[in-house]
Design brief:
With 412 residues, the chain is α+β, with helices and mostly antiparallel strands. It has eight helices and 16 strands. It has a six-stranded mixed sheet with strand order 9-12-13-2-11-10, with no helix packed on it. The chain has a three-stranded antiparallel sheet with strand order 3-4-5, with no helix packed on it. A three-stranded antiparallel sheet has the order 6-7-8, with no helix packed on it. The termini are far apart.
């Protein structure tokens, strides 16, 4: 369909006129490939552009690239996500539990307050700040000591207020604490009061307040291969967050609960050079893939979290059927509330299948008569009070009988 444009009349006396101009625009072959990949993927990378089947984008090369993607083995977005999950966790939920301070990969920080402390600024119940002492001060949050400061860290450009040890303050004013030493967070004395900016202090306890941090986890030196700095390019918190590369085997670890809850006292650690750190719990996600499934399906986590973390077992499906296993762990859990009762007939085929699955040797005795107390026939040998013709006798009263050849071969 053609489009019509109505142009205003021209004043020919002064030389007005219309001119039709055309422009040509050409992009490089790499840009054409990048544009194609941006449409076909979540975003082209330099490696993907460089590894494109041909140096020029054509219909054939695009079809070849698509076929390459189809031929690639399928991967699980869920597994990719779980491997890289790094969110803070202050209590177990249906999918995850927090990690443990002494386990490999536990996270530690130098600054006192995190965004997790301010995530419920509107709910101050049980989450208030108290400042104890008249210098040095002990700052507590939710009833637990967080750090000790020589002078209260007000931000300079705002008027200071007198700290009252009997007053309960709150993290407020909608802004989450900035996660680095010297970052800003806001404190308010009560409803209708002004929010006062405060600097996020480092974690520190002196000889008079160390007992408030007990038990203190002895951490390895930073850079020793046991404790390393992470997120160095993140922001101002560079050098203030750490990861434990090797697990700790210390008596103090046995004093800590298996699962940390938000209302529990924070866990502090100290390096050999005296630097104080606070454990920063994250979601602990165990590998649970078709190739390497959890032996108990996550039953242990369900038990230690009092049922808050749900079982990880799922029904057999096209993605996991090649990796399904029969678990013998006592903590094995059931991942569905459906009734899983199945009636299995004890025929020759199923007996062989039970052996192949369990590795045990079930046996069937054919034509064994059953009878109740009155010798009347009964339907099932599983009914209470059932008697059979089998009787336990002393060994010297047993009469040896010849076994069938097939039975002998099976037993031998």
């Amino acid at each position: 369909k053609r489009s019509t444009i109505v142009l205003p009349p021209l004043n020919e006396e002064i030389g007005e006129g219309y001119y039709l101009m055309s422009f040509e625009h050409e992009i490089s072959e790499n840009d054409k490939i990048a544009r194609f990949l941006n449409r076909a993927t979540f975003g082209a990378t330099r490696a993907e552009i460089d590894n494109f089947p041909t140096s020029k984008l054509t219909t054939e090369s695009a079809a070849q690239w698509i076929q390459f993607q189809i031929d690639e083995p399928s991967t699980s977005h869920r597994a990719w996500f779980r491997k890289r999950l790094n969110a803070r966790s202050t209590r177990p939920d249906i999918k995850f539990i927090p990690d443990h301070p002494c386990h490999i990969g536990s996270r530690w920080r130098r600054y006192t307050f995190s965004k997790k402390d301010g995530h419920q600024w509107w709910n101050t119940e049980g989450r208030t700040i108290r400042v104890i002492g008249d210098g040095p001060y002990v700052i507590t949050f939710a009833g637990h000591a967080r750090t000790t400061v020589e002078t209260f860290p007000w931000k300079n450009e705002f008027p200071k207020i007198t700290i009252d040890p009997s007053t309960e303050y709150s993290i407020a004013c909608w802004d989450f604490p900035e996660e680095w030493i010297g970052g800003t967070w806001y404190m308010r004395a009560g409803p209708g009061m002004y929010c006062r900016p405060v600097l996020n202090p480092p974690i520190y306890f002196d000889t008079n307040t160390t007992q408030l941090a007990n038990p203190v986890v002895p951490l390895p030196a930073v850079g020793s291969g046991g404790l390393e700095v992470i997120d160095q390019q993140k922001n101002e918190s560079s050098g203030q967050e750490f990861i434990l590369l090797n697990g700790l085997d210390h008596d103090i670890c046995t004093q800590l609960p298996d699962i940390m809850y938000e209302e529990d006292p924070p866990v502090f650690g100290q390096t050999p050079d005296g630097m104080w750190l606070q454990f920063d719990p994250r979601y602990d996600v165990e590998e649970n893939t078709a190739e390497n499934p959890l032996r108990d399906g996550g039953g242990t986590r369900t038990l230690i979290s009092n049922g808050l973390a749900q079982c990880s077992n799922v029904r057999r499906n096209v993605f996991n059927e090649h990796g399904c296993i029969l678990s013998r762990e006592p903590t094995t859990c059931k991942g569905t509330s459906d009734n899983l009762f199945i009636l299995i007939g004890l025929n020759a085929e199923n007996i062989v299948a039970i052996h192949e699955i369990t590795g045990t040797y079930p046996y069937a005795v054919m034509n064994l008569p059953l009878g109740g107390d009155d010798n009347a026939p009964i339907v099932s040998p599983c009914i209470k009070g059932t008697k059979t013709r089998w009787e336990i006798l002393p060994e010297n009263e047993c009469v040896q009988t010849d076994m069938d050849a097939q039975t002998y071969n099976v037993l031998s």
